[in-house]
């Protein structure tokens, strides 16, 4: 398969640095025999590499690294803090509590609708929630979630002020 000049141009640096596979090198050689433009580009690239190879290696000064690091943009990264735990614990606790209460209600409703036998019901332990006022049950996760939201907004405000000052 013949290669076009663009494909050859993309491979010339690897050709000069001797990083091509034998098959790729052979195909580049075949193209170079026929294409004067690519031969000129190869000659120029070879001269550049030869010139760079002949230059002495310059060691950076001791202050160079410090200057580079000082000029890097300051990046703020998110670091989880104990404040995250204070926020997540009440929120997740409220959600788990709410989920368990709703799951128990759903299961008790399913058992009633399908009239599962007494033997099957005795193996499944579902709390009896009929005597509990649902308004009282809902208040617990709502309070916990509200506390979590207050803590979350406080943390955001604190971080906002902290990062705005830096």
UniProtKB/TrEMBL annotation:
InterPro entries: Anti_sigma_zinc_sf, Znf_put. Pfam families: zf-HC2 (PF13490). The keyword Transmembrane applies. The keyword Lipid metabolism does not apply. The chain crosses the membrane at residues 77-99, 138-163. Keywords: Membrane, Transmembrane, Transmembrane helix. Coiled coil: none annotated. Residues 5-39 form the Putative zinc-finger domain. This is Putative zinc-finger domain-containing protein. The lineage of its organism: Bacteria, Bacteria division WOR-3.
């Amino acid at each position: 398969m013949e290669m076009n000049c663009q494909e050859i141009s993309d491979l010339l640096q690897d050709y000069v640095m001797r990083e091509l596979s034998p098959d790729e090198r052979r195909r580049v050689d075949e193209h170079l025999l026929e294409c004067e433009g690519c031969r000129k580009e190869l000659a120029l690239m070879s001269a550049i590499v030869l010139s760079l190879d002949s230059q002495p290696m310059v060691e950076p000064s001791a202050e160079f690294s410090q200057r580079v690091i000082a000029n890097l943009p300051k990046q703020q990264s998110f670091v989880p803090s104990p404040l995250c735990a204070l926020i997540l614990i009440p929120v997740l606790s409220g959600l788990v509590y709410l989920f368990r209460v709703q799951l128990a209600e759903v299961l008790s409703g399913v058992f009633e609708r399908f009239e599962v036998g007494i033997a099957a019901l005795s193996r499944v332990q579902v709390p009896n929630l009929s005597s509990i006022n649902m308004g009282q049950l809902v208040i617990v996760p709502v309070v916990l979630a509200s506390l979590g939201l207050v803590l979350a907004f406080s943390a955001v405000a604190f971080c906002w002020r902290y990062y705005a000052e830096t």
